[in-house]
Structure formats: structure tokens, C-alpha cells
Amino acid sequence: MTDKKNLRTPIVCVMGHVDHGKTTLLDKIRGTAIVRGEAGAITQHIGATEVPIDAIVDKLGDPRLRDHFIVPGLLFIDTPGHHAFTTLRSRGGALADLAIVVVDINEGFKPQTYESLQILKRFKTPFVVVANKIDRIGGWVSQKDLPFAATFKKQSYDVQAMLETKLYEVIGELYNQGFAAERYDRVTNFQKMLGVVPVSAVTGEGIPDVLMVLLGLTQKFLEANLQYSAKGPGVGTVLEVKEEKGLGATLDVILYDGTLKKGDTVVIGSLGEPIQTKVRALLKPRELSEIRYESKFQQVNKVTAAAGVKISAPGLEGALAGSPIRVATEENLDEIVAQVKSEIDEVRIDTGSVGILIKADTLGSLEALVHEFRKDEVPIRKAEVGDISHRDAIEASTVEDPLYSVLIGFNVKVHPDARDFLQESTVKVLTSDVIYRLVEDYQKYVKEQQE
Ligand code: GTP
Ligand code: MG
């Protein structure tokens, strides 16, 4: 059997459309785990929550399962709306080991549902689909915290039929997106088929089932990926660059490998040369609440993967969300700087030739956009993180071919001077907070031009 001590906590990203219930689902997993989990405290991280395996097994209701699972717990990352991309990048691959895609069973698929699926497909991340808000199905009689099969049995025939109808709409949509899927308890081979778990994040119905499927996926897919050395140098991804009162610019980071210590030299991606700085303080949330709403932190001397942590250090202002952060030593500093630089350059393009201009809010979203446009063989003149500036506007206007005199903006602002300039110009500006909408809008624009 695998040595448990050498497995790190799998990172689970919760994705899906706005308001479909990602945060509520996490709250429920966390909340019920706290209530029931004498077995072990839930640890709050920056931008993430760690639920220890004992608390999860406790929810599954069969203690014999404990020996069956080899991971120390699960680290859940909530990705608010459009931030899905930021949080997914690591070494040009997926930050998440696993994912949950939440879809409101009554509303069905929405733009960010499709988007989540595309990303997961691209990175080949194993995931489970949660068909949420089953308590809103007309006539549903809620059975607090029960597993799905138990609550389903208690519903009337009509309600059961309604749930199945809605569920198969979700399954049909998944099929259209290229995924074979089934209600999770009808899946015989999770390597070939996606499981869909009907859930209510509010009443807790179906939550034990979600945890069970997640643990099943870790066992099947991840064992090899989770082997790591806690002694190795820390490697992580920057989730956000945030101003904190009294601290200046800080980084919210998910550490996915190794150890990060106070005083360590770290290298972080920026728009120019990578930032080199020394960790002044490592901060964790003080209590069991999401860091986004938290103002008080607790200092720690070191963190070990997988974990979320806030880093305070001098000179973090220019750091890029979505970029890598790596611990360096005196001996390998140059090497690490070069490595971080090449990781950033992989995404940024500056060819100076004919093509569209792309601006995005994070490295992760930029990478996804570049990937999509390249897939369609659309030439790109420049792709960069940041708002649309006056310079970008001028640059786009110098492109003569109207098909490429285009500025694409994902989750970015248009500077006022750029806006003034663009109003007078023939540059086509497309902005959105949905990547696939930008791609579609561009295709539509091209069609119009060609008619
Ligand atoms: P963003 O972070 O904005 O992307 O949204 P989200 O996906 O995190 O959704 P959130 O958890 O904030 O839920 C949105 C609304 O739906 C809230 O009012 C929740 O109370 C409600 N909600 C979430 N899950 C359920 C559910 O299972 N049943 C019912 N009835 N309401 C739910
Ligand atoms: Mg949320």
C-alpha cells in the first residue's frame, strides 16, 4: 500500500455559473463537517478550505471506509464567477487535481458552465457534476443531510419523475459537450463516464454522495500525481494580488508542492522581469471563515502543500495573478528566475506582426483566450495581462486589415483616454467576462465583415 505520509492533499476546484451555488455547497461541506467532525478540525486557508479525511469519512457514515482512503483530506478552492481561470493554472497545466462543476438543475447550462467544462476537458482534470438546488423542484420534500438515494425514495412519484427529467437534460447537455455522463449511482466505470450527483447545497441532501464520488476519483486517478516531497522548495500559483491595510500589496497563493518558509527568497511572475523578494510574513485566516471577508490574520512560520496562504513581502505591486511563485536559493536563483520568466512568456505573445490584440485580467484567462483563438487559427499580434490602454488602442488602429484591427478584452477596463481614441477609430472592441462569448462575437464579426 502507498505510504500515506507522502501523499499531499488533493486540490479540488469548485466551478460553475454565477449563483448556481458553489459557495453554498462549500459552506455546507464545511459547516456539516464542523458540526459533525469531532474527528478533526477543518482548516481555513487563504481562498481555500481543508477538510480532513476523518471529517469526510464521518459524513459517509461507515467508519470502515477510513482505512480505504489514502489522502489526508481535500483542499477546496472556491472560484467566484469569472475567476475560474486564474485558479486553475499551474506550470501551464491545471492547478486543480479534481473539480466540482455546479449546475442549477432548474436553470440548466449557462455560459460559465460551458466554460468550466471546456477548461476541464483541456486540462483533462477529473471532475464530478453537481446538479444543485433539487429542493426547488416543485413538491420536493426536503430530508436534511440525507444521502441522495434515501431522500429520493421519500419523494412522490411525480417529483421523482420531474427530477429524472431535469437530470437527463443536464446529462444531455454534457453529452453535447462531449462527455458521457450518468446519474452517479448508475455509473459503473468512472474512468469512462462522468457522475452527476443531484444535491441541495441548502438542505445538505446528496452532500455525502458528492464527497464519496470525489474520494473515489482521488483513488482512481490521482495517487501517482499526489506523491511529493514536503521538504522540496515551495511552488505555487498566485490567486490574487491584494492591498491589505498596513501591509501594502500582498499575494494570495495556493501552494501545490513543497514547503514555503518565512524568510525564503521567492520569485514571482510580473509583466516585466520576474520579482525577486524575501517573504516577510506568512499569514493565515484567524478563524473559520473565508479569507475574502476576513481582515485579521495569524502569522505562521511555514506552510506545506497543498495549502492556501497570504504572503507579505516588499515589492509585490507588479505581481501577476495566475503566475507561478517559486522558492529559490542563493545557488539556483538565476535558474529559477529564468524558469518563471519562461512560464510567463509561454502565454504572452508579442510578435509585432498582423493579428488581433488580446488583454485579460490574469495569466490563466489570457492563456485560455490565446488557446481558443489559436485553435481557430486567428493570428494574434499581442496578448497581455492588463486593462486596455491608450497604447493598445493605437496599436490596434495601426493594423490595416479590419479582420485583425480588433481589441479583445476579458474582465478588463478600457481606460478613458483609450475609450476616447477608440470612439474615433475603426478598431473593433469586444469585451466580456465569458471567454467563449468573446470567441463567438469575434466569429460573428468576421462573418459580417466578409458579407
Ligand atoms: P458566485 O460566487 O456569485 O459565482 O455564486 P455561487 O455559485 O457561489 O452561488 P451561491 O452559493 O452564492 O448561491 C447563490 C444563491 O443560490 C444563494 O441565494 C443561495 O442561497 C442559493 N442556493 C444555493 N444553493 C441552493 C440550493 O441547493 N437550494 C436553494 N433553494 N437555493 C440555493
Ligand atoms: Mg460564490
From TrEMBL:
Residue ranges occupied by any Tr-type G domain in the UniProt entry: 7-223
Gene Ontology molecular function, alphabetical: translation initiation factor activity
Keywords tagged on the record: GTP-binding, Initiation factor, Nucleotide-binding, Protein biosynthesis
Keyword Nucleotide-binding: yes
Record bears the keyword Protein biosynthesis: yes
Binding site for GTP: 16-23, 78-82, 132-135
Superkingdom field: Archaea
Function: Function in general translation initiation by promoting the binding of the formylmethionine-tRNA to ribosomes. Seems to function along with eIF-2.
Similarity remark: Belongs to the TRAFAC class translation factor GTPase superfamily. Classic translation factor GTPase family. IF-2 subfamily.
Protein name as it appears in the record: Probable translation initiation factor IF-2
Source organism: Methanosarcina baikalica
Gene: infB
